[in-house]
Amino acid sequence: MMLEFKNFKKLMDQVGKYAIHLDLYNWGEPFINLHIFKMIKYAKKFKIKVEISSNLNFYNEKIGRQVIKSGLDTLICSIHGGSQKTYEKYMVGGNFEKAVTNLKNLIELKKKMQSQTPKLRWRFVVFRHNEHEVEKTRKFAQSLDVEFEDLPMKMSLGSDVPTVKREIWEKRDWIPKNPKYNIYDVEKRERKDKDLDCFWPWEMISIGAHGAVQPCCVFYAPEKSCARKSETTWKPSVVPAWQVVFYLCK
Fold first, then answer.
1. Which of the residues in the chain have pLDDT under 50?
2. Which domain holds residue 183?
3. N or C: which end of the chain has fewer CB within 10 A?
4. Which helix (H) or strand (E) holds 76?
């Protein structure tokens, strides 16, 4: 399911004057949504900083020009590996060389169009199978004058919080050995930093294409929406999205 522009516009008309940052992505590839650039331009009317994340496998020069003209502030390039072998283990069906080539092409297009935006960031999620390539990839990104961001793998909450304990055990072979990137205690099946405070409920909300309002970006099941049963953000009877905090605090 993809977010329709009419629904996006409805949301922006509600919260646009209050919002300062918009992550226009989650659980999908933004560039396959034909309305993505229209959405970016509309959000920029409210002077909101807009960020999207792409695997750069669905990219061409036409898309590149639209990316630059849309006013997008930041483009995260999700390339989780330094070779095809490590990259494809997580990015199933993806092409490492295509992603890197498209990144290079976008860099050149920005120069050609004399544009400072979007800011480009190479995001590298660290797993056990690719942790040995982090530094090599960091240096390569720096040679392209692209910001490099290495993040430890995290378990998805999916549709229920207890899922995490099961996932930590089932995905234990994916967890990096390097302590810098290993944030889980496999034997206890929990995070090592148990006292970590999450800012999401107080600073951000996640709204899916289906209209469900989530307290965090790692939830994706519509039935976990903070809205009342049978309601979504897109239905007139739903509580305005900016009032969702009242649901979160109950």
1. 228-230, 236-239, 241-242, 244-250
2. 156-196
3. C
4. strand 74-78
